[in-house]
Design goal:
Helices cover about 45% and strands about 15% of the residues. α7 links the parallel β3 (about 120-125) and β4 (about 140-150). The longest helix is centred in the last third of the chain and has 27 residues, at about 290-320. By secondary structure, it is an alpha/beta fold. The termini are far apart. α13 packs parallel to α15. The protein is globular. The protein has 2 domains: about 5-45 and about 295-400, Aspartate Aminotransferase, domain 1 (Alpha-Beta Complex), CATH 3.90.1150.10; about 70-290, Aspartate Aminotransferase, domain 2. The protein has 15 helices and 14 strands. The chain has an 8-stranded mixed β-sheet, sandwiched between helices.
Length: about 400
């Protein structure tokens, strides 16, 4: 091994950290452990039989092209289908506004690659998606946390932060927002708050990154308009993915934005992976064209709705009264807040002993706060295991209290 390995690592590499969730998932691989830790879709929602037939069709009809290199922008048909779907949600776009990425995590990494220089300010939620925080941290962003209320990121705090930065002759590169069933909090930003955030961003001329991987998984409540659809000035860049609404193993995501911004991301992606797998893109496109996507999504939504309801009822029955939690209208997660003197990190070890796993909330806070919080996933395990897992977790918390 080279003797000066640590010396030749880049500053960015030295600042990189292992994903807390991925590391926790290793501990939770014991089949006896009920894991609420990962953001995993339910395996029973995967349309394996249909995909087997479609895969065969793609190989027989278009195998030579599907197995070849593809355009960096992505498969033309898939981009057209994605653009058409978003038009139903009020987006004024064509395929030229769409870039296919290797899942939305690549999109987050490309954001850092294209926008962030060391020390640049980025506004994120307190809490916010760990994958986004990790991607921005890798490019040495200086992340500024914006606290939440019941409606998500507080617009007054965003404006106050932007005003303070402007007084110092500074401006953040972007505001990172997860408006629908936020990971990890499960909170949805209502239309009035979205408009407030958008108007503030326009006033201070700051880009908004709208990361919306869960928007389609709404099982109650009212539809809220995407920030991209509310905007008509190019101040919003939207990220989406099939990982939570179709299959995560395909690793297909996308970025939607003004063609001038998309072109810069295309160039950045070319030095990363040249192109997202043409094979899985063509399978996905055919799957959508045949009408399977919307049918399967309805089943997925019902599956998650039932699992969440089981979990909420179990919380109400077994959790100590000092514990509170969010009740999301969709998505895959809810967020638990413990009494302030409890540390979820310390409880994790006790929980593993009781054979139940979660993710401590502090990893979702750029400032290390949130030690008395935890994220819970309800989509992955069965309803029966959701119930049993809550019983075990409640026991751990009661003992700590």
């Amino acid at each position: 091994m080279i003797s000066n390995l640590q010396e030749i690592f880049s500053m960015a590499a030295k600042g990189m950290k292992r994903s807390a969730i991925r590391e926790l998932l290793k501990l939770a691989q014991n089949p006896e452990i009920i894991s609420f830790a990962g953001g995993l879709p339910a395996p029973e929602t995967f349309p394996t039989d249909v995909l087997a037939d479609i895969t065969r069709e793609v190989l027989e009809e278009n195998g030579a092209i599907a197995l070849q290199y593809g355009a960096t922008e992505g498969d033309t048909k898939l981009r057209e289908l994605i653009a058409a779907n978003y038009k139903n949600d009020g987006f004024d776009i064509t395929k030229e506004n769409v870039l296919i990425t290797t899942a939305s995590q690549q999109g987050l990494d490309l954001l850092g690659k294209v926008f962030i220089d060391p020390g640049d300010k980025v506004l994120v939620g307190l809490p916010s998606y760990l994958g986004g925080l990790a991607a921005f941290n890798a490019y040495q962003a200086d992340m500024v946390g914006i606290p939440f209320d019941e409606y998500g990121m507080r617009s007054d705090k965003i404006e106050k932060t932007l005003a303070e930065l402007k007084a110092k002759n500074e401006s953040p590169k972007f505001i990172y927002v997860i408006p629908d069933f936020q990971n990890p909090a499960g909170v949805t930003i209502p239309d009035f708050r979205r408009k407030e955030i958008l108007n503030i961003a326009k006033r201070y001329d700051v880009l908004i990154i709208e990361d919306s991987p869960y928007k389609e998984i709404r099982f109650e409540g009212e539809h809220q308009t995407s920030l991209y659809a509310l905007d008509n000035t190019g101040h919003v860049l939207n990220l989406g993915t099939f990982s939570k609404i179709f299959v995560p193993g395909f690793r297909i995501g996308w970025m939607i934005g003004h063609p001038d911004i998309i072109d810069k991301f295309v160039i950045a992606k070319q030095s990363t992976d040249l192109c997202t797998s043409p094979f899985v893109q063509k399978i996905a496109a055919k799957y959508i064209e045949k009408g399977y996507f919307s049918k399967n999504l309805k089943k997925t939504i019902q599956n998650y709705k039932e699992k969440k309801e089981v979990m909420i009822k179990a919380f109400e029955k077994y959790m100590p009264e000092q514990v509170t939690w969010t009740n999301p209208e969709g998505g895959l997660f809810l967020f638990i807040t413990l009494p302030e003197h409890l540390d979820a990190g310390e409880l994790f070890i006790k929980a593993i002993e009781k054979k139940v796993a979660f993710v401590k909330g502090s990893v979702f806070h750029c400032d290390g706060s949130g030690k008395n919080t935890m994220r819970i996933n309800f989509s992955f395990v069965s309803k029966e295991k959701n119930l049993e897992g809550v019983k075990r977790l409640s026991q751990v918390i009661r003992e700590a209290l």
